[in-house]
Design a protein that fits this description.
- The protein is mainly alpha-helical.
- It has helices spanning 20-39, 54-57, 78-83, 87-105, 129-139; strands spanning 5-8, 46-50, 110-113.
- The chain has one domain (5-139): NAD(P)-binding Rossmann-like Domain (Rossmann fold), CATH 3.40.50.
- It has a three-stranded parallel beta sheet, covered by helices on one side.
- Helix 1 (20-39) links the parallel strand 1 and strand 2.
- Helix 1 runs parallel beside helix 4.
- The longest helix is centred in the N-terminal third of the chain and has 20 residues, at 20-39.
Length: 142
């Protein structure tokens, strides 16, 4: 039985501001490595990339009027995200753009979903920022 679809949901979350390059490299290379592996599978029909809502909603307010509809042509401003040091958003933007480019060049049927956050079993023994925020909501701390 062949694999016909892939869901790519993993992305590094590095909270140390000095780790900007590590986060960007890990996100972009990790995404491209998944797609390179997918390219080798002749039975693959579709790849679903879990991106982030931060790839479309972060811009200077002057560039982002209220009530504007966001669609597949909408992108957050990398420059704005860099100016306020939101490296996770920069990493997700650049990784998704790289994925779209690779998919187009290699005839891969790519779909991106943009959730605000994803929760599930933790792969790390250390509680990550998203899981920590959700736990805070459940405990009534946030």
């Amino acid at each position: 039985m062949a694999c016909e679809g892939v869901f790519h949901t993993a992305s590094p979350i590095i909270t140390n501001a000095d780790s900007r390059e590590e986060m960007l490299d890990s996100a972009i290379n990790g995404t491209l490595n998944v797609l390179r592996s997918c390219k080798k599978n002749p039975f693959l029909k579709r790849v679903v990339l879990t991106s982030s809502s931060s790839t479309v909603r972060l811009r200077d307010e002057a560039e982002f009027p209220p009530n504007v509809l966001l669609d597949e042509t909408s992108w957050s401003s990398v420059e704005f995200c860099e100016s306020i040091q939101i490296w996770y958003a920069v990493a997700k933007i650049l990784a998704e753009k790289s994925a779209w480019e690779f998919a187009k060049e290699n005839n891969i049927d790519l779909v991106a979903v943009l959730p605000t956050f994803v929760i599930g079993p933790n792969l790390s023994p250390v509680l990550g920022p998203t899981a920590s925020d959700v736990l805070g909501l459940f405990k009534g701390i946030c």
